[in-house]
Amino acid sequence: MKLLHLADLHIGKRVNGFSMLEDQSYILNQIIDIVDNQQPDAVLIAGDVYDKPVPAADAVQLLDDFLVQLSRRHVQVCMISGNHDSAERIAFGGRLMSASGIHLAPVYHGAIEPVTLTDSFGSVHIYLIPFLRPANVRHFHADTEINSYTNAMRTVIENISFSPAARNVAVVHQFVTGSGIQPETCESEEHTVGGLDQVDASVFAPFDYVALGHLHGPQKIGRDTIRYGGSPLKYSFSEVNQKKSVTIITMQEKGCMDIHQIPLRPKRDMELLRGAFASLTAPDFLQAHDTQNYFKITLTDEEDIPNALTRLRECYPNMMLLEYDNKRTRAHADILGADHTEQKSPLQLFDELYEKQNGQPMSDAQRTFTMQLIREIWEDME
Question: Which of 7, 119, 210, 374: disulfide with 226, CB 3.0–4.6 Å?
Answer without folding.
Answer: 210
